[in-house]
Amino acid sequence: MEKKFIYNEHTAVVDTEKGKVRGYFYDDMYIFKGIPYAKAKRFHAPEPVEPWEGVFQAISYGCVCPLLDLPKPQGELMVPHRFWVMDEDCQNLNIWSPGLDGEKRPVMVWLHGGGFFAGSSIEQIAYEGENMCKLGQVVVVSVNHRLNILGYCDLSPFGEEYANSGNAGTDDLVAALKWIHENIDSFGGDPENVTIFGQSGGGAKVTTLLQTPAADGLFAKGINMSGVIGGALADCRGSGEKLVHALMEELKAEDVKALETVPYDCLAEAYRKVKPVLEKAGEYVGGAPYRNAFYAGEPVSNGFRKETEHVPLMVGSVFGEFGSFAPTPYKRGEMTYQAGAAYVEEQVGKEEAKELIALFGKAYPQRNPVDIMTMDFTFRTPEIEYIKTRSCCSGGIWSYLFDLDMNFDGGRTPWHCADIPYFFHNTDLVAYTQEEGVTERVEKLIFDSVMAFARTGNPQNPEVPNWPASTWETEYTLVIGRESKVRENFDHDLIPVLGRCMGPVYARNMEKRMKDVQH
Fold first, then answer.
1. Model pLDDT for residues 290-309, shown as the tens digit of each residue
2. If exposure means fewest CB atoms within 10 Å of the residue's CB, which of 118, 138, 156, 485 is most exposed?
3. Within 49-114, where are the H helices?
């Protein structure tokens, strides 16, 4: 079927609170790019943009937040990327809508990955919103916001004007959600039915917004994909005073105000120098949310806020996560069961292997024991506790695990980010997903579940008709693979043993694996 394109002064023109914006019509969708939702001085809270005269041309993606380190394209076949123009004026969003007709459609707001320090709304090719919009008949929004030292650096000891500088990036997300609440009905969306969803750091941002009082009432549901993890995405601790003094000394700045105007490249270089020293001493280094009066802190330790207990969640992760990034020193596809078991024994010891392989066989009877070597426990361990804790809330929480091996390099367990194309219905954009008779079936199951959740707050649908919300006693996990099935507490005995036995092996391998792929 021929795709229709219209770009003129009468089509895709929308009135917002601050002025008119003009996008374009393509393939039965109205598309708007780079709409500013706020502005901000460095380290300060975001402010509303000034109203504009005329029509804002929303046809180009806006600038993304500057990164601390220039990205080096690598592993692009596993995680296909795009890199974009960077500038601190990065508070902008993109919209895909099926119609500008006043119909109240579900709204899906994408929060990108990259921890709280990197990434952008368009960084991964699989982030494109067209297919989700058109096939799901939902309004899709993706958001850029401040990251790293610009978005998460505590200067509060230096004055009230910096009271929440430690969470400025989250304040940007709140500002974006307020903009959506005030304007999305003009784009065919329902401001009372907003689902925030994100992967990795984006999933962690879902949790952070649940714990941020200023975000209350601005979203109705959340999907957290591979975003429950300690360590790299944990809250910052301590005061930012030593960090700020170290930056001032490195930059020869007379006062803290000078940090607001120093060129970003100089600020980033100074930060890269002082961070390792402070980190080694256990001091605050920023780059992640900061618990204070504006943010209640990570919920497993601090409790979920009662004000958001009614918000339903989908939470899940991927079988391999970071463990599946690097090539293995063995030919997985050619290994017998006995050879796989022998390799595990060689790596962790005879007694540990015996216990581990027995539990692994119960959880994953279809897998060769050698897959223990790439199986994730760094995400899954805190995720089990997160789901259990959240299960007591009235909104309900649904658990999933993406367990589909990829047709890659002879067959590889799925890695961090491997599930994103299926959620967006974008497998046609990503080469590694292609497997005849499998891709379409798995994509439909995931996409239909996500769309059901966006509409009703419950992911059950004809593809997965019996998927209960988890309870304190039972985690009902939809294990998604060639044969998908809801299972009860299926890996709860395995995960602690996996962490104990594989921890040292994982630590040895992780540094190399994290360097192999930009993610």
1. 999 999 999 998 999 999 99
2. 485
3. none
Query: Reduced to 3 states, what is the DSSP secondary structure of residue 403?
Result: coil
Q: Which residues contact 237 (CB under 8 A, 6 or more apart)?
A: 284, 291
Q: At CA 363, angle to CA 357 and CA 367, rounded to 5? A: 65
Instruction: Convert the pLDDT of each residue in 422-455 to its tens digit.
Output: 999 999 999 999 999 999 999 999 999 999 999 9
Q: What is the DSSP string of 442-494?
A: HHHHHHHHHHHHHHHS---BTTB---PPP-SS--EEEEESSS-EEEESTTTTH
Q: How many CB atoms sit inside 10 A of residue 189's CB? A: 26
Task: Give me the count of residues in the chain.
Answer: 519
Confidence of residue 506 (pLDDT cuts 50, 70, 90): confident
The end-to-end CA distance of the chain, in Å, is 35
In angstroms, the Cα distances linking 247 to 40, 256, 499 are 21, 9, 38
Contact call for residues 86 and 65 (beta carbons, < 8 A): yes
Give residue-wise pLDDT tens across range 388-428.
999 999 999 999 999 999 999 889 999 999 999 999 999 99
Backbone angles phi, psi at 281, to 5 degrees: -85, 0
Torsion angle defined by CA atoms of residues 9, 13, 15 and 19, in that order, rounded to the nearest 10 degrees: -60
- Residue 107's closest CA among 77, 130, 141, 75? 141
DSSP state, residue 185: G
- Cβ count within 10 A of residue 397: 24
Please answer whether residues 488 and 479 qualify as being in contact, where contact means their C-beta atoms are separated by less than 8 angstroms: no
What is the 3 state secondary structure string of 326-391?
CCCCCCHHHCCHHHHHHHHHHHHCHHHHHHHHHHHHHHCCCCCHHHHHCCCCCCHHHHHHHHHHHC
Summarize pLDDT for 135-186 with one digit per residue, the tens.
999 999 999 999 999 999 999 999 999 999 999 999 999 999 999 999 999 9
pLDDT score at 327: 86
Three-state SS for 509? helix
Sorted by sequence, the CB contacts under 8 Å of residue 437 that are 6+ apart come out as none
Q: What are the tokens at 510?
A: 């992780």
The pair of structure tokens assigned to 304 is: 């979920």
Q: Which of 114, 113, 118, 288 is nearest to 198 (CA)?
A: 113
Tokens 């220039």 locate to 70
For residue 123, give the nearest of 79, 180, 69 by alpha carbon: 79
Neighbours of 178 (CB within 10 A): 19
Encoded amino acid at 39, one letter: K
- Among the residues of 137-200, which ranges form H helices? 148-151, 168-183
**SS3 category, 260:** helix
Residue 35 reports pLDDT greater than 70: yes
* pLDDT on residue 410: 86
